[in-house]
Amino acid sequence: MSQTVVYMLFLLVILGANTIQTLTGFAGNMLAMPLSIRLLGVNEVKTILNVFTMIACIYIWWMNREHVNVKIFTKIIIFMIMGMLIGMWLSRVVPMDFLLRMYAILIIAIAIYKMFVKREMHVPDYLMIFVILMAGIIHGLFVSGGALLVIYAVSVLKDKQEFRATLSPVWVILAIILMFSHARSGYYTNETILLIILSMIPLVISIWLGNKLFDKINQKVFLKITYVLLLLSGISLL
């Protein structure tokens, strides 16, 4: 496959995944990671998607800032940062092939659960810290801890605007931390910088499209489609 075709396919993945991220406040990177890894490689994709997460979520945060639940945000960010530091350490000491398989199994498990379990999961208070820590670990490894964090967030953030507004600043802060880590590791190569620049157009389109669809789309139908895509993405990594 030529480099031009690879880049075009990656831009299409960015368009679709970030539209979903803007709509739901989660799942964008978890959808984008498997296909993008096949196209570019783990470190390159983590670096690029992290920048996009930050830009998209800054916009969502600013537009919905009055709906942020500060108490819940503070609780999430403390434990997410702790988990993310663990994930960043694991990425340096555990073989990536093993981590990718575990990540694929996690994606598939989440997708199947969401597709077939109808009742909403309520996380007991004593499990809350563990769930958020695990979300942070996955985010440190693959920049996509949103699906795990949602298990906790849906039990405490009932309004969809509050949900989206509260999670967005979480991703912004974590993205800034990861940017420094990626820079120290030398992940900002000429190729990744070029792809970041090229991908700004689909990123802007996806933010616009996601916001246009937010008030019009049937959320239940859309989420079902998202879970099917998650399942296929997870399978593609095995």
Structure, described:
This protein is mostly helical and 238 residues long. The protein has one domain (3-237). 84% of the residues lie in helices and 0% in strands. The protein is built from 11 helices and no strands. It is globular and about 45 Å long. 42% of the residues are buried. The mean pLDDT is 84.
As residue ranges, the low-confidence spans are: none
Number of strands: 0
Q: Which structural class should the secondary elements be placed in?
A: mainly alpha
Main beta sheet: strand number and arrangement?
A: none
Residue share in helix: over 70%
* Average residue pLDDT: 84
Number of helices, where a helix is a run of at least 4 consecutive DSSP H or I residues = 11
Number of domains: 1
Shape: globular
Keywords:
single chain, 238 residues, mainly alpha, 11 helices, globular
Short description:
This protein is 84% helix and 0% strand. By secondary structure, it is mainly α.
Task: Give me the secondary-structure topology.
Elements: H1 3-24, H2 28-40, H3 42-63, H4 70-93, H5 96-116, H6 125-142, H7 146-156, H8 160-184, H9 190-198, H10 200-214, H11 219-237
Helix pairs in contact: 1-2, 1-3, 1-10, 2-3, 2-11, 3-8, 3-9, 4-6, 4-8, 5-11, 6-7
